[in-house]
Design brief:
Shape: globular
Number of strands: 0
Radius of gyration: 26 Å
Strand content: under 5%
Distance between the termini: 57 Å
Helix content: over 70%
Order of helices and strands: HHHHHHHHHHHHHHH
Length: 293
Amino acid sequence: MSEIFSPISVPAAKPAQAASEGAATRGVLIGISVTFLALFLVLPLFAVFTQAFSKGIGAFLDAFREPDAWSAIRLTLTVAVIAVPFNVVFGLAASWAIAKFEFPGKALLITLIDLPFSVSPVVSGMIYVLLFGSQGLFGSWLIDHGIQILFALPGIVLATVFVTFPFVARELIPLMQEQGTAEEEAALTLGASGLHVFRTVTLPNIRWGLLYSVLLCNARAMGEFGAVSVVSGHIRGLTNTIPLHVEILYNEYNFVASFAVASLLAVLALITLVLKSFLEWRFAGELAHGRAH
């Protein structure tokens, strides 16, 4: 009976065979990754720049001499300058509260922070139309007081803030949770105020993660299309951001100008990737150094 219940021996794979199988698997995975990146990242970028310069450098530069193009660039930068600091303040407050304190509704707050990731940007834009449109919940009051939210800068900023506010909080929450509260508690024990602890202990520990999240938030703010398209009204020279201006040029069959302006967004995306990689390197190195100590 002992032979019946004896464990079945499985022949171990030879080292050379295991190494060859591992090399083959690695080659397949790398090939899939490189092919995917070539088709969905490198090729589209190549197409954008090829079309942008298809009629020479003069036609490319002409696309940026148009007043509407400069208006779109200024508006995009203005929206980013307003929206990103709002998200930084919210992200710092939310991540500090969630990572360092226990309070009722904490799980609900985390869920609400993730809401823009699960809601279509177009739907988020429609929410502001239902709230601030002429037939919306606050529309009559806004009209009576001469306040314009939709089809103006405030509506574009609100829509951009909505779709980008998770970026800072979602980057800082796990970072702060991993760092724990020991340093803050020690500083408080020594008599430091809460604000002083945040400025001298918490903020230095998260500075690279904060810069990383601000970078991603800014990139999304400048490239947002769906929500801004709904609330902007597409008023040429007034409420068109860079993505909306690209769409108008493309719909008018002005392909060179369309891809020329789009190449500006592509360059910003590439700069964002370079800075993102740099911050990841610095952040990973600093985190490893902190763990070593």
